[in-house]
Amino acid sequence: MQQPLNFYQITDRIGTAGQPSIEQLAAIAKQGVANVVNLAMHDSDNALADEGSIVASLGMSYFHLPVPFDKPGAGHVRKFFSIMDALESEKVFVHCALNLRVSAFMHQYLTLKKGLSSEQASSPLLSRWFPDMDDAWKSIMNLSLDEIER
Hints:
Helix 3 crosses helix 4 (100-113). The protein has a 5-stranded mixed sheet with strand order 1-2-5-3-4, sandwiched between helices. It contains 8 helices and 5 strands, in the order E-E-H-E-H-E-H-E-H-H-H-H-H. It has one domain (8-144): Protein tyrosine phosphatase superfamily (Protein-Tyrosine Phosphatase, Chain A). By secondary structure, it is of the alpha/beta class.
């Protein structure tokens, strides 16, 4: 089976990608992933209308934190950090529509909260996207831990 769009295994326990199909979610569950975190909006082009129910039926927990691509904010990052902290000992699959939102949020989480270097915390997709990011996303990438946790 083909991996989800833009899949990247960023740590031993965290995989990231764009929107997976139902079949890909089933394969993810079979790999022992306990949790799915979705940062895409409800109305993303390729969203699964009943993703939460599908994930639950596969025996995984589902967390949906819709992050508008045109207006990400420190509050979204704070909630994401909270979810990831709560799941820190479990296998997690984190996705959005294309793995752009996730790549940025994951970079911030891994560098600011887990002490990884920027290189260790960057997906190949983030490295390609970074030079062309708009101001809203550059602002997310420049947040300090204090600004996030306010």
